[in-house]
């Protein structure tokens, strides 16, 4: 699952594919609230989820590890 999430994050944000899974995305400016919502919809479409922005907090999307954990909770 992590490989799929990682690929979606990299593709959606257009970031360096060598980014570490624990790199903070918000505090480094790689992700903002608007791009987080866009990423959420991409995760829904590509992984068959039905998450809404109300289901997650911004902290749940701060790293690839946290995004993976969140997706696994809702899969």
What's the topology here?
Layout: H1 2-13, H2 33-47, H3 64-74
Q: In words, what does this structure look like?
A:
By secondary structure, this protein is mostly helical. It has one domain (2-74): Non-ribosomal Peptide Synthetase Peptidyl Carrier Protein, Chain A. 51% of the residues lie in helices and 0% in strands. The chain is built from 3 helices and no strands. The radius of gyration is 11 Å and the shape is globular.
Distance from first to last alpha carbon: 10 Å
Number of helical stretches of at least 4 residues: 3
From the structure provided, what is the oligomeric state, counting identical versus distinct chains? Answer: single chain
Shape: globular
How many structural domains in the coordinates? 1
- β content, as a range? under 5%
Examine the secondary-structure arrangement and name the CATH architecture. Answer: Orthogonal Bundle
Task: Quickly give the structural class.
Answer: mainly alpha
The CATH topology is given as Non-ribosomal Peptide Synthetase Peptidyl Carrier Protein, Chain A
What characterizes the major β-sheet? none
The tally of beta strands, per DSSP, is 0
Please state the average pLDDT score.
95
SSE order in H/E notation? HHH
From the structure above, extract its key features.
75 residues; mainly alpha; Non-ribosomal Peptide Synthetase Peptidyl Carrier Protein, Chain A; 3 helices; globular
